[in-house]
Design brief:
about 280 residues, alpha+beta, Ku70, Chain: A, Domain 2, two-stranded antiparallel sheet, extended
Length: about 280
């Protein structure tokens, strides 16, 4: 069963809803360990103290913050608990906003908010109200030793929560958006046609991580002593004639559309054992 990452109350005015948060998504990838090339033994990392000149155990480790050169402040678990904000146990809705007003650039991690039995009716009230009004809620949640701003939105008869970055965490790149190039109306028209020829409805099941699939295939091949085939890559060059490139792209898209069979449910590929680290 999935583990709870936060538990407490979601409050809305004088209404409080006991909830638990569960991670809604997590990255899946092939993991590797470090081996000694000579004997293929897994390398063990040790914690070494250069002052005491010995290896130390995990139980001897404490948190420290350097306030000056070689001057440290030790911070204990009880110190952190003392200064924990109210949002570590109570997630108070501060305002409601339209979801489309939030730039996706700010979104970080996603969680499912599940109600505890006594709060199911109040939870459903919030879900129904938010679905009808079209608003998402903004609140704060204290977890993982920091306080997050969170966006709460209705989804499939439940509440999904997204942590978002603070403005000072969103990087600014001076060159971004500074290009000033005139584009001909005809070029825009052809580009729009190309977009429409590739348009469709978003279905996440149609996409897969080919890099991870190739890594698994590589591991299987090497484990069985088979030869590994290199992946071919196209060589690209900057477009010189934009109109010609657009016209060729449209012609290619039209041919793909003509050859495309009637839509069917995607066939699931054979499940393969993932290499774990």
């Amino acid at each position: 069963m999935a583990s709870t990452v936060w538990k407490g109350y979601l409050t809305f005015g004088l209404i409080s809803v006991p909830i638990r948060l569960f991670a809604a998504a997590r990255t899946k990838r092939v993991s590797f360990h470090q081996l000694h090339r000579v004997c293929s033994t897994r390398i063990r990392e040790q914690l070494f103290c250069p002052t005491c000149e010995r290896t130390v155990e995990r139980s001897e480790i404490v948190r420290g913050y350097e306030i000056d050169k070689d001057r440290w402040v030790v911070v204990e678990d009880q110190d952190i608990k003392k200064i924990a904000p109210p949002s570590t146990t109570t997630m108070e809705i501060q305002e409601f906003v339209k979801l489309e007003e939030i730039d996706p650039l700010y979104f970080d991690a996603s969680y499912y908010a599940i109600p505890v039995d006594p709060g199911r009716k109040a939870y459903q009230l919030l879900v129904d109200t938010m679905e009808k009004s079209g608003y998402a809620a903004i609140a704060k949640a204290g977890m993982h030793q920091r306080e997050y701003v969170v966006v709460i939105r209705p989804r499939e008869n439940g509440l999904t929560l997204h942590t978002i970055y603070y403005p000072n965490e969103v990087r600014a790149v001076p060159e971004y958006g500074q290009q000033h190039v005139n584009v001909a109306p005809r070029e825009i028209q052809l580009a729009e046609q190309l977009v429409k020829s590739l348009a469709g409805h978003f279905d996440p099941k149609r996409y897969s991580d080919e890099y991870q699939q190739r890594l698994i295939a590589l591991i299987e091949a090497k484990g069985e002593g088979r030869k590994v085939t290199a992946t071919p890559h196209r060589r690209l060059a900057p477009v010189v004639d934009l109109m010609q490139a657009l016209q060729k792209s449209l012609a290619s898209a039209d041919k793909k559309t003509e050859r495309k069979p009637a839509s069917k449910a995607p066939v699931a590929r054979r499940a393969r054992k993932t290499a774990h680290g």
